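Example record

The entry below shows one chain as it appears in the dataset: sequence first, then structure tokens.
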Amino acid sequence: MLKTQVARDGADGGYVPSPRRIERERFKRARARRATAVAALSTLVTAVVLYLVVTGSPGWPRTRETFFSAEYARKALPKVLEGLLLNLRLLVVCGAAVLVLGLLLAVARTLRGPVFFPLRALATAYTDFFRGLPLIICLLMVVFGVPALRLQGVTTDPVLLGGAALVLTYAAYVAEVFRAGIESVHPSQRAAARSLGLSSGQTLRFVVLPQAVRRVVPPLLNDLVSLQKDTGLVSIAGAVDAVYAAQIIAGKDFNFTPYVVAGLVFVALTIPMTRCTDWVTARMDRRRAQGGLV
């Protein structure tokens, strides 16, 4: 009976694992090493097969010269990085505007009482329209349609108009993320806050929103990653960002390597944000599992 115990005290009083536990741990380590070896081998085989298929294709020499030229890559990289500054500025400014507008829309959609029906209806119509409208069409309408109206005092700067189109579209998506967070807060939280004498606004500000925002941080970061990539679409209006800088260089020599360089730069920016999203999600899951997060 004693031999079947998971743990027992040793002669010095310290913890001594049972033989069965030692054998189980040894089996787990062996299985982990075997899984790692199989994954590495399958990855290597897949990479070799893809390399042979791509480099053995009839058009590979011409493709390599047109898309993967080291000479054109060195020539395009400084201009692409210079244009990337515009993408980063758009990401910072538009990201902040999207968060503010999205939160206001979400609050408007979750207001209670018949007196707020017009606000709820307007917020619902806004999110339905801009979530259904393709971003590229929204950009074309704002960038080329607004200047055509010739309104006094309205800017015709393609960067500002392109940023406005990004904010209009992404605010609709972010509003739904915030709304999901607000509606996930249990009604007992509101009831408890009201029983303590807080008004509806104070309940929303001090009780509901802090919990709602914490719960939707991972999807919000995902939306910011998508926004970072879509800032390249403002190039259709003539703004010289990373994509348009690559287009200018590619147009001179009919070599598409600058596009590949611009794409790799965006990927290099996106990967850290994606890993940050994964880290935040895992951290919140651990805290929720430990009961430290409401």
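Notes for this example: The radius of gyration is 27 Å. Confidence is low (pLDDT under 50) at residues 1-8.
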